[in-house]
C-alpha cells in the first residue's frame, strides 16, 4: 500500500497533518487449524498485508476513528469516559475495546486522538484483520502514551477483546501471530503452555500464495462457537476417565484407545480433528527443519481433508480452490486457513508456475462458483511497528 495515501487520507478527513504512522500485519497459519482453543500447537506467521494507521493527538478527551475501508461509516466518535461496547460503533469496537481494556488495566490515557485506518487485508477473508487492528491499537497506545506494556500482554488483551468485548470465543493464535511476528519466521506456539519458539520458513523455490474465495464470512455469526462447544463436550467425556486438561494433551494412539468414551459420531470427528491436527503440526516443523518440503506439503493437504470431513468448516468455495490447486504442477500442498466457511486458502507453489497456477485455478473457480477468486503472494513479515513519516515523504 502507498503509505503516502494513508497520510493524505488522514489530512483530508481530519483537516490536519498526521503526527505518526503505524503498520500492523495480518496473519496466516501454515498448519494447525482450530487447535488453538483445544490446547494444541499452531504454526502461524505474520504477513506483509495488514493495516495502516495515521495518528494525531487531540487536546480533549474525544477519540475520532475513521476507516478508509468502510467510508460509509464516516467518523466514529467516542469519549475516553464512555468506552463500553456499543453495537452501533461496528468496526470501531475493535479499537475501542483495546482502549477500554488498557484503561481498565490501570494505564492512564490523558487525552484523546484522531486515527485514520486503511488496510489491504481483504475484508472477512480470514487473514485476521480483527487481530491486526487490535494489535495496531495496542501498539499505538503503548508508543504514544509511553505505557511500557510488554508485547505478550498486548497479545493477551487482544484475545480478551475478542472474547469479552466483541463476543467471539476465539483462541489466542491470531493476536499472538500478529503481535509476535518475525520476518521469514513462523512461530510454533503451544497454546496449552504458551511456550513458543521461532522456526525459519525456508521454502526453496516455492512461495506462499493466498487464494481468497471472496465469500465474506462473519466469524461471530459462523458455526465457530458451535465447533468449540462440540470439542469442549468431547473433552468433558474423555475427562470422565482421563486426567487431561485439553484435547492437545492426547497422542493419536491415546485418542484411538479412548474415543469409545465419547461414543458420538459428530463429537468423535470434531475431537479427532483437534488431536490429529495437533500431531500434524509437530510433524510439519520436523519436516521443515529437515528441508523435506514434499512431506511437509502432504501434511498441509491432510490438514484440509481433516477440516473438510471431520471438522466440516470448509464449504464449496474453499474446497473448489484447494482441490483445483492440488491439480496444478509445482504445488507442494494447499489448505484452507482461518475459521473457514469462506475466507482464504493457501498454496505452496513453485515460483516458475505462479502465472499458470493463478490462471488455471482462477478459471476453475470462476466456472464452478460464478465469480472470481483473488490471489496474493504472501511474504512473512515482522509484527506491528511505527513507520517514520520522514521516510515516507522522501
Structural class: alpha+beta
How many domains make up the coordinates? 2
Rg from C-alpha positions? 21 Å
Identify low-pLDDT runs.
none
CATH class of the largest domain: Alpha Beta
Helix content: 40-55%
**What percent of residues are in strands?**
15-25%
List how many beta strands DSSP finds.
13
CATH architect. name of the largest domain: 2-Layer Sandwich
Number of helices: 12
User: What overall geometry do the principal axes of the alpha carbons give?
Assistant: globular
Biggest β-sheet strands, sense, barrel: 6 strands, mixed
CATH topology value of the largest domain: Ribosomal Protein S5, domain 2
Notable features of this structure?
single chain, 394 residues, alpha+beta, Ribosomal Protein S5, domain 2, Alpha-Beta Plaits, 2 domains, six-stranded mixed beta sheet, four-stranded antiparallel beta sheet, 13 strands, globular
Question: What does this protein structure show overall?
Answer:
The protein is an alpha+beta fold and 394 residues long. The chain folds into two domains: 3-192 and 385-392, Ribosomal Protein S5, domain 2 (2-Layer Sandwich); 200-378, Alpha-Beta Plaits. 40% of the residues lie in helices and 21% in strands. It contains twelve helices and 13 strands. The protein has a six-stranded mixed beta sheet with strand order 5-4-6-3-1-13, with helices on both faces. Strands 10-11-9-12 form a four-stranded antiparallel beta sheet. A hairpin with an 8-residue loop joins strand 4 (62-67) and strand 5 (76-79). The two termini are 16 Å apart. The mean pLDDT is 94.
Amino acid at each position: 500500500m502507498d503509505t503516502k495515501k494513508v497520510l493524505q487520507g488522514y489530512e483530508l478527513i481530519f483537516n490536519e497533518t498526521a503526527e505518526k504512522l503505524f503498520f500492523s500485519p495480518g496473519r496466516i497459519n501454515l498448519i494447525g487449524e482450530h487447535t488453538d482453543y483445544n490446547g494444541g500447537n499452531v504454526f502461524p506467521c505474520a504477513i506483509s498485508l495488514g493495516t495502516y494507521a495515521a495518528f494525531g493527538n487531540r487536546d480533549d478527551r474525544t477519540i475520532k476513528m475513521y476507516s478508509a475501508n468502510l467510508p460509509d461509516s464516516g467518523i466514529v466518535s467516542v469519549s475516553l469516559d464512555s468506552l463500553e461496547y456499543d453495537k452501533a460503533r461496528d468496526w470501531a469496537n475493535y479499537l475501542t475495546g483495546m482502549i477500554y481494556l488498557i484503561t481498565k488495566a490501570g494505564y492512564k490515557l490523558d487525552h484523546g486522538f484522531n486515527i485514520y485506518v486503511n488496510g489491504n487485508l481483504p475484508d472477512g477473508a480470514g487473514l485476521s484483520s480483527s487481530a491486526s487492528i487490535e494489535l495496531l491499537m495496542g501498539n499505538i497506545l503503548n508508543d504514544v502514551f509511553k505505557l511500557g506494556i510488554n508485547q505478550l500482554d498486548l497479545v493477551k488483551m487482544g484475545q480478551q477483546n475478542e472474547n469479552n468485548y466483541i463476543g467471539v470465543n476465539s483462541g489466542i493464535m491470531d493476536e499472538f501471530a500478529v503481535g509476535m511476528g518475525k520476518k521469514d519466521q513462523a512461530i510454533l506456539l503451544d497454546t496449552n503452555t504458551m511456550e513458543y519458539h521461532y522456526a525459519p520458513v525456508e521454502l526453496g523455490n516455492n512461495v506462499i500464495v493466498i487464494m481468497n474465495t471472496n465469500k465474506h464470512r462473519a466469524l461471530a455469526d459462523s458455526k465457530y462457537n458451535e465447533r468449540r462447544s462440540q470439542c469442549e463436550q468431547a473433552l468433558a467425556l474423555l475427562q470422565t476417565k482421563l486426567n487431561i486438561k485439553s484435547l492437545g494433551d492426547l497422542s493419536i494412539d491415546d485418542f484411538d484407545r479412548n474415543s469409545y468414551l465419547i461414543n458420538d459420531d459428530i463429537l468423535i470427528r470434531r475431537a479427532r480433528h483437534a488431536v490429529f491436527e495437533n500431531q500434524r503440526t509437530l510433524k510439519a516443523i520436523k519436516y521443515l527443519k529437515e528441508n523435506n518440503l514434499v512431506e511437509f506439503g502432504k501434511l498441509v493437504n491432510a490438514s484440509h481433508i481433516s477440516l473438510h470431513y471431520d471438522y466440516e468448516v470448509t464449504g464449496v468455495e474453499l474446497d473448489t480452490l484447494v482441490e483445483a490447486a492440488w491439480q496444478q504442477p509445482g504445488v507442494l500442498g494447499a489448505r484452507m486457513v482461518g475459521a473457514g466457511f469462506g475466507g482464504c486458502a493457501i498454496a505452496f507453489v513453485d515460483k516458475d508456475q505462479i502465472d499458470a497456477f493463478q490462471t488455471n485455478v482462477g478459471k476453475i473457480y470462476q466456472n464452478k462458483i460464478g465469480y472470481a477468486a483473488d490471489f496474493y503472494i504472501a511474504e512473512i513479515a515482522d509484527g506491528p511497528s511505527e513507520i517514520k513519516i520522514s521516510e515516507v515523504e522522501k
